[in-house]
Amino acid sequence: MPDSPYRAAFDATSPMFDSVTPLVWGPAGQSLAFALGLRSGERVLDICAGTGASALPAAAAVGPDGLVHAIDLSDDLLELARLKATARALRNIDFVRADATQWEPPSTAADGYDALACSYGVFFLPDMDISFARLVRLVRPGGRVGVTVWRKGAIEAFARAFFEVVARYKPGRPHEGPLATETYAAHPLRRIETEETLGPWLTESGCTSVEVREFSNHVPATEEFSWNFVLGSGFRGAIAEFDDDALASIRTEFLELLTARGIDSVDATTLVATGVSVA
Ligand SMILES: C[S@@+](CC[C@H](N)C(=O)[O-])C[C@H]1O[C@@H](n2cnc3c(N)ncnc32)[C@H](O)[C@@H]1O
Question: How far, in Å, is the centroid of ligand 1 from the Cα of 94?
Fold first, then answer.
């Protein structure tokens, strides 16, 4: 499997990823699992599963007669997910290191999954539209499909301050990512970050009966949360090259800039979209 730049970037988030889970990844993943209307015995594919924010509630929802295939590029995040599944005695979930764009279902789901879930992940997939439409075809007709994405404007003020400080340390070397300043307008997330665009996109991917709900979430921007969010999310990729001294300076300047700008909460508002597969 050709390596994705996101594998190393997300492996590096693993020490802090789950410090963000209780306030951001977890509530959204739980909302997604609920919105999918999962029932006992169903088979779920969860892509870009991370440490299991949506896969673990999905496994609880489908119960011992159901199954969840939870796939991600990052071994380190998957290992944390496995530990949580073991601690919760969930034996119906397999965490597999795989690229979602290459995933072929094993025999237990060869006739189609009952549901597909992806929380904060579709916008990382290369050729997002083609890749996601292929995954929707792995769901049986009538099965459900659900995604979460940042709502337009969410995280923006926080991200702008962060990338402004990072740019002081590596001028002229752009970082790529959904919220990076230089590549902002061209990023695929821009095409699916409103109710008006995400709904039709899910329809185009092979779904009907599409619904988009807004999950409002404002997290107080304490110093602890703000820096944990940088280290435990895709932002981490932008500071991978720095040593501890540089990181300490970036942290200080970033927190000062948040204060100077009056950014006292992080808008983590998220769209939760579901549809029914027509494949
Ligand atoms: C922001 S995290 C979200 C993780 C989890 N769904 C959650 O909400 O906590 C995005 C995840 O997508 C994964 N990812 C990115 N591209 C991927 C791909 N092509 N195949 C599988 N996983 C991928 C990353 O490794 C990362 O764990």
Answer: 16
